[in-house]
Amino acid sequence: MISNGNAAFRSAINVAMFAVLAVGSIGIASADQKFDLGKREYLNSCAACHGADGKAPTQVLDILKVAPPDLRQLSKNNGGVFPMNRVYESIDGRLGVPSHGTREMPIWGQRLSVEAAPIYDDYPWNAEAFVRARILAVIEYIYRLQQK
Fold first, then answer.
1. Comparing 58-62, 70-74, 95-99, which segment has the lowest mean pLDDT?
2. Residue of higher predicted confidence among 29 and 124
3. CB-based contacts of 32-39 (< 8 A; 24+ apart in sequence)
4. Does 148 score more than 50 pLDDT?
5. Angle formed at CA 53 by CA 62 and CA 40, multiple of 5 degrees
6. Same domain, 77 and 14
7. Partner of 130 for a Cys bridge, out of 22, 42, 74, 117, CB 3.0 to 4.6 A?
8. Are 122 and 55 contained in the same domain?
9. Distance (Å) of CA 4 to CA 9, 13, 57, 116, 143
10. Is the Cβ–Cβ distance between 66 and 53 less than 8 Å?
11. Other C-beta atoms within 10 Å of 50: how many?
């Protein structure tokens, strides 16, 4: 029988083990290669339409109803200020973007939704915070793409 104290200890050990594994997996990249979560998420979720460099158009332009914007120009087209809130709402679905698909199943829905957050057994965690972190990582990468 596990007491509440032992269950809490076991939970803490699981969290620590997960943290060690996560940090260890980041270290798998070669010494000259830095892990970049924002870039990785962008390439997996956005690059097919917006291009690997954010420039657009891509090979899928012919099948899109609306041409994707040049993401490198967001700040320039907004008076020199990066439109963080508009970008966030475009990604999370609050701001309707016709080319992103329906709000029930955006193009990136399998990666940037609460349902896509991994399930961790034995300790509480916040799936929304996990997804929010992924979205913010993408936004930070798009911010780095901005042309001065």
1. 95-99
2. 124
3. 36/141, 37/134, 37/137, 38/137, 38/138, 38/139, 38/140, 38/141, 38/142, 38/144, 39/141
4. yes
5. 105
6. no
7. 117
8. yes
9. 9, 14, 56, 30, 45
10. no
11. 21
Q: List the domain range (segments joined by +) for residue 9.
A: 1-31
Beta strands in the chain (DSSP E): none
Q: CA–CA distance from 72 to each of 12, 51, 80, 83 (Å)?
A: 42, 11, 12, 12
Q: What does the pLDDT look like over 27-48, one tens digit per residue?
A: 445 555 688 999 999 998 888 8
Question: What letters, b where the CB count within 10 A reaches 16 and e where it falls short, cover 7-24?
Answer: eeeeeeeeeeeeeeeeee
Residue 121 tokens, joined: 């057994």
Residues 6 or more apart in contact with residue 72 via CB below 8 angstroms: 53, 54, 55, 145, 146, 147
For the chain, the average pLDDT equals: 73
pTM: 0.64
Q: Which residue has the tokens 């992924």?
A: 134
Looking at the 3D structure of the chain, how many domains does it have? 2
Two structure tokens written together for 147: 């042309």
* C-alpha–C-alpha distance, residues 29 and 24, integer Å: 10
